[in-house]
Design brief:
The complex is a heterodimer of chains A (395) and B (339).
Chain A (H helix, E strand, L loop, with lengths): L18 H33 L30 H34 L4 H15 L3 H12 L10 E3 L3 E4 L2 E4 L1 E4 L4 H28 L5 H19 L4 E4 L2 E3 L2 E3 L2 E3 L1 H28 L2 H9 L4 H31 L11 H13 L2 H30 L5
Antiparallel strand pairs in A: 1-2, 2-3, 3-8, 4-5, 6-7
Helix pairs in contact in A: 2-3, 2-7, 2-9, 2-10, 3-7, 4-7, 5-6, 7-9, 8-9, 9-11, 10-11
Chain B lengths: L1 H18 L6 H8 L2 E6 L7 E2 L5 E2 L1 H14 L5 E6 L4 H6 L5 E2 L7 H6 L2 E3 L4 E3 L1 E6 L13 E6 L3 H12 L4 E6 L2 H9 L5 E5 H8 L8 E3 L7 E3 L2 E3 L3 H19 L7 H4 L5 H7 L5 H5 L5 H8 L3 H8 L29
Parallel strand pairs in B: 1-4, 1-5, 9-10, 9-11
Antiparallel strand pairs in B: 2-3, 6-14, 7-13, 8-11, 8-12
The chains are: A alpha+beta (395), B alpha/beta (339).
């Protein structure tokens, strides 16, 4: 290069030559451009829809919906608003996802541990279960449970009878509904007291064991409290809970609580499908714990079940939690396949019927997407907090 | 790097500008493309259903073929796009299709708030109930407590709720996203009753495992005028789609069929002459060729032929003309004059 007579001076370059100023400036420009594009898209959509005479805005949420929904956890009828249908769909989605996550976790942990069993038959059965259900598309499994299994149950007039109080038919499971009379509140209070006392006992037992090494049978005592106290309250208050037993009338049973077959089929399919992935995650987590840990624990004289519970699983959880979170997210998102069999989840009720009756696709799709995003981010957040709690703490 | 940003910025601006100018002349677009994009049902016998070799047939399909014959001179220049009930309006609003002909009920809300226009009625229908004969119910007023299968996103769902509420009866709505799925639910005994437009019930009944195990109840609980739909704000195209159907109805009224349309071109009747384009300039003022109805009638037929071929007494659906007969025959089919 040709020589420049001026020597390079350190410090205070011109702002447009300062790498820090430049990098910040470019990032600001990039953010502004993205915001502008987003804003223009929004404005463009709104003005185009207005020019075509398509109604926009969220006013429709206050209008009467006028259609029925088969299952609702909150009070709903045809005279309520579209906003209410959104809540009905949302609670139904949360119900099936919550139950699905609970059952899939239980089944997944059991199968994952069974997969590592020294019993050849148990291990191979777990392997077969995983390989079959993991490799069949979920939608097919939903159809299988809905049409091939639950659909072949007898009709309500020939319902399978469980002790004359609960009935199983192709309209779902109908169980008696508790009717709370005056004084029933004491049972609830008893339950809460039992839960608090149990928590205290468990904490105390753990402290005592850490300090003295003595083991207190906290689990049986707590169980007895939780079951016993409300039962005692029930008897003392003169049995204030009655039962509304379903009776056959006309087309179907009336009274009782009905769990519709759509919920059953969706829950079965989601649980069984997701549990296979959780089982593999659990297995990989357990295998990742060095065998030296197990051997050391056994050498100390711990029985095999305690080795698993106290030594292996706490360490395995560090490996298990992050991929488990994505399975929970998958399960929640997969629950939108409900629309295929008519379970009234958010996608079916709100993005299906409400969208079609109002025609406000942009608003409704945006709201639905925002809900799934919010649910997923909440699950992620909770799991991240839990992960931090079980993560390896370096002292 | 900076160049990339600038290029991308320009591309994005271009995209936005493009998105801003989708308000277009559909007639010109269809003629330029040489093909009509028509939204139909994803499988409803008699209305729109593909046969084993993939050719679409049905009264809704023929309505589109008639428009293609009028605009392009070829009834086969149609791309059929199957849509579920929930997808149909969005597909039309977004310009994915030129005409929606998918057994769609004409209602105030749809006409006024979706940015759409209904061009007419190609089938006057009404909602009814299909019930298992074994239940021994012979009136819709005895359905208290029944589980009812229906399709999501239809006027049916709303009429159903209105009917049960008005008569102070309870029901359980089992809602599926396609009409096949709702029929399958009914077939599997998930519900006691299947509700839909009676023409659809006739079609779905033929597909049950045992078609004789179910019957249609006599009550008709709603008015369902079904017809083609176009986007609002393109009056030229609105007129074309509207007058092709009116032309077919007028053709039946004046006895012009696919068999005699050639002879009719030498007819002395001024009304017939205007339809076949030998007098007047009906085609020109609509933006088409003056003999556009000759293409429509020779390739698709008049309204009566369209009805008989797809849903009439000689088809599996076996429907009578009923309300869909011409006003001169005791029906309510009455097209404005072609003049």
């Amino acid at each position: 290069m040709s020589s420049d007579p001026t020597p390079l001076k350190p410090g205070n370059p011109k702002p447009w030559n300062d790498p820090r100023v430049r990098s910040v400036a470019f990032q600001l420009i990039a953010i502004a451009a993205v915001a502008w594009i987003g804003y223009s898209l929004f404005q463009n959509t709104i003005s185009n829809m207005e020019s075509r005479g398509i109604r926009t805005g969220f006013g429709f949420l206050n209008e009467t919906a006028g259609f029925g929904i088969i299952m609702s956890l909150i009070n709903y009828n045809e005279t309520m608003t579209y906003g209410r249908t959104f809540l009905v769909g949302l609670t139904n989605t949360l119900l099936v996802s919550g139950l699905g996550i609970l059952f899939a976790t239980i089944v997944g942990f059991i199968v994952g541990i069974a997969r590592l069993s020294t019993n050849w038959l148990v291990a191979k059965l777990a392997l077969a279960y995983i390989e079959v259900f993991r490799n069949v598309p979920l939608l097919l499994q939903i159809f299988f449970w809905y049409f091939a299994v639950l659909g072949t149950l007898p009709g309500p007039r020939q319902a399978l009878d469980v002790g004359g109080v609960a009935f199983l038919s192709n309209r779902g499971i109908i169980i008696p509904k508790p009717v709370f009379e005056a004084g029933a509140g004491w049972i609830g209070i008893a339950l809460i007291v039992a839960l608090i006392v149990s928590l205290v006992i468990v904490t105390w037992a753990r402290r005592r064991q850490a300090a003295t090494g003595q083991i207190f049978p906290a689990f049986p005592v707590a169980s007895a409290l939780i079951l016993g106290l409300p039962a005692l309250a029930y008897l003392v208050m003169g049995r204030p809970v009655g039962w509304d037993i379903p009776t056959m009338g006309g087309f179907n049973f009336s009274g009782g609580i009905t769990a519709i077959p759509e919920l059953g089929a969706l829950l079965l399919a989601l649980t069984i499908y997701t549990a296979t992935f959780i089982a593999e995650i659990v297995r990989s987590g357990i295998v990742s714990v060095s065998s030296g840990q197990t051997e050391a624990a056994l050498a100390l004289g711990l029985p095999p079940r305690r080795v698993l519970r106290l030594v292996v699983i706490p360490q395995a959880l560090r490996v298990i939690i992050p991929p488990l979170t994505s399975q929970y997210l998958n399960l929640t998102k997969n629950s939108s396949l409900a629309v295929a069999i008519g379970y009234p989840d958010l996608v079916n009720v709100f993005m299906g019927t409400s969208l079609n009756q109002t025609g406000q696709a942009v608003e409704i799709v945006a709201m639905t997407m925002a809900v799934y995003l919010a649910i997923s981010l909440s699950i992620s957040l909770l799991m991240n907090i839990y992960n931090r709690a079980v993560a390896l703490k370096e002292r | 790097m900076n160049k990339t940003i600038i290029t991308m910025g320009l591309a994005a601006t271009g995209l936005l500008a493009f998105a801003g100018s989708t308000q277009a002349a559909t007639l010109q677009d269809v003629q330029d493309a040489g093909e009509l994009r028509c939204g139909v049902s994803n499988g409803l016998p008699g209305f729109s259903q593909p046969d084993s070799s993939g050719n679409w047939a049905g009264i809704d399909v023929d309505t589109c073929r008639a428009v293609a014959a009028a605009v392009l001179g070829d009834a086969d220049a149609v791309e059929f796009i199957p849509l579920t009930a929930a997808e149909r309006f969005t597909a039309l609003q977004s310009g994915e299709i030129d005409v929606l002909s998918r057994n769609t009920t004409w209602t105030t809300t749809r006409d006024a708030s979706l940015g759409l226009n209904f061009t007419g009625t190609n089938y006057y229908d009404g909602q009814g109930f299909l019930i298992k004969t074994a239940l021994g119910v012979d009136s819709a007023y005895d359905l208290d407590g029944a589980a009812v299968c229906t399709q999501a996103g239809t006027t049916t769902e709303l009429n159903l709720a209105d009917f049960f509420r008005a008569n102070d009866m309870e029901y359980e709505a089992v809602v599926f996203d396609t009409s096949e799925a709702s029929a399958q639910g009914f077939d599997n005994n998930r519900c006691d009753v299947l509700t839909s437009d009676t023409s659809q019930l006739a079609a779905l009944k033929t597909q049950l495992t045992d078609p004789d195990s179910a019957e249609i109840l006599p009550e008709i609980i709603s008015k369902e005028p079904l017809g083609p739909v176009v986007r609002q704000g393109d009056d030229e195209w609105f007129n074309v789609v509207k007058w092709v159907l009116f032309g077919q109805i007028n053709a039946e009224e004046y006895g012009i069929t696919s068999d005699n349309v050639e002879e009719m071109e030498s007819s002395d009747n001024p009304s017939v002459q205007r339809i076949v384009g030998t007098s007047g300039n009906m085609g020109e003022i609509l933006g088409l060729d003056d003999d556009f109805m000759v293409d429509v009638i020779s390739q698709v037929g008049n309204y009566g032929e369209m009805f008989e071929r797809n849903v009439g007494p000689d088809t599996p659906l076996g429907l009578n003309r009923g309300n869909n007969a011409l006003w001169t025959d005791g029906g309510i089919l009455y097209a404005p004059p072609f003049r």
